[in-house]
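Researcher: Good morning. I'm working through a list of sequences from a screen, and I'd like to move beyond sequence-only analysis. For each chain I'm collecting a predicted structure so we can compare shapes side by side. This is the next one on the list. No need for commentary yet; just the structure.
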Amino acid sequence: MGSEGAAEPGTVRPGGRTARVRAAVLQAAGDCLAERGFAHLDLADVARRAEVGKTTVYRRWGSVTGLVADLLADMAEQSLPRTETGTLLGDLRANARLVQRTLADPRQGALFRAVIAAATCEPKTAEALHHFYDTRVEEWAPCVRQAVDRGEVPEGTDPHEVIRAVSAPLYYRLLTTGDRLDEDAADRAAEAAAAAARAGVYVRGDGVV
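Model: Good morning. Structure tokens for this chain:
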């Protein structure tokens, strides 16, 4: 492990002209993951696809797991911002449809399957994946807090659990069935989470939100 003052490979956010290199490498890495999975991700192949020197890729990211960690960080940064509709159900439906569109996309769906599979046996990838989802859940959590303020759901409702409940059925379908992920599935997930939240299912015992 590096010291607090030294960043690990893949954690530095380059700016200026090097930003184009990072963008090209991350695009190539995402393509490779979607096409061939984590087990076949190779830094030399990524460098070739990105038309970047191998030494640049090895020096900046250091390893496949370092590259995947940076890819996930970039995906979290580039994700669309939260939608505000004025109602909990409307907000949760917007969230569910965003997740649905991402997972139904041939490239993005395959990419997430590959990263989730890798996270089961690669601690650094798992850490990066957890950070990605923590970032996205935190982005959408205010819609539940706003619903509490409006009186739509009980005081003490855990915003993070509500948001996780929206996407959980969609990821389950992605990973365990061959069923099509459509807007109807997204809307059902949002409606189920909203109904459970209104019923107090996600109220924390300590009342902390």
